[in-house]
Protein: NADP-dependent oxidoreductase domain-containing protein
Organism: Microdochium bolleyi
Amino acid sequence: MGVLEATDLALPPIAPRRRQPQTNGVKATVTSSTTKQPSLRTHFTLNTGAQIPAVGFGTWKAAPGEAGRAVEAAFAAGYRHLDCAPLYHNEAEIGQVLRATSVPRGEYFVTTKLWSSDHRRASQALDKSLRDLGLEYVDLWLMHWPVTLPPASEPEGYGKEDRTVHDPEWDFRDTWREMERILRDGSGRVRAIGVANFSTVNLEKLLSAPGVTVVPAVNQTELQPLLPQDKLHALCAARGIHQTAFGPLGGAPVEGSTTLHDEAVVREIAKARGVSTANVLLSWGVAKGWSVIPKSVNPGRTAANLRDNFVPSDEEMRKLDGLAGSAGPRRFNRPNWGTTVFHDDDVNTK
Ligand SMILES: NC(=O)c1ccc[n+]([C@@H]2O[C@H](COP(=O)([O-])OP(=O)(O)OC[C@H]3O[C@@H](n4cnc5c(N)ncnc54)[C@H](OP(=O)(O)O)[C@@H]3O)[C@@H](O)[C@H]2O)c1
């Protein structure tokens, strides 16, 4: 586990980029000494020593009746990381697939999360996720948001709480100490703990809190070319915290609004490479050094999102890195928590 005293927590180096296109990185090795050609990263190493797949599978908004099929398609396509959460109301359906799969448990990585109204009952919430997923352990357990809500009054209200009404006597540092306790309690229910949606301000607050000894293995946040979060990335890299990009495709399209897929630079690279705009966005993320967890309930897109990624050239990276500056920063997932959670956002972030 990543303890605060540990100093050697730097991220592994990102594989150097090459100018020639390369596809089907999933089967590629991390480095190839015979060809001396850089390959697409297939995994990143966490501060626990565990490996997290570079491209995982998101499950938010995979509706009842869809989520199980989507996960089956993801396994068949070769995904070996599922990003889950009780908030998504589909862990039980995903659990049916996990109970039936022939993929050995040691060969896939599962993340689940602790929802905000469960901060005071973390252990029970974890047990519920494990029961629903049909698992003895999860590889990674994340605090979903850095805000504590009072428990929902009835089960139907779970996830629909008023996010602006907070628990005044319990904050995310209390929750993290409890997650640390569970990590070490000998039950083996979680292999690593981490956070999500933490800004630099909240990360510093967590890391300097009395009694906190474990450095989060992961901070899962929205990361895409219009929201590269350089300051957050620098802090995470310095503290040995791996970043996972959620919403790497900009999330579900909103009627009347443009998407990341519409950005001219993204389209041009996709056209030149003969891949989808999604592959351009995902390849950029992996080249930046973070794991990406695209969601799809469309089996064709699911397969292509894993299969057709490539190592972007320096020129392609320069163009994609320039997008936030030219098009302006944009955050697609911005719920109102009634308090600042996105401390690092530029004032112009749309
Ligand atoms: N920690 C957090 O607070 C947090 C927040 C948000 C998300 N997440 C996690 O991150 C995962 C991914 O984020 P997300 O689901 O918000 O968004 P996303 O993966 O960026 O985008 C998903 C949307 O893109 C579409 N899509 C997928 N592949 C595509 C392709 N090749 N071409 C065009 N469109 C494509 C999907 O539609 P189809 O399904 O119809 O293909 C869906 O509408 C989530 O599922 C969840 O596991 C975590």
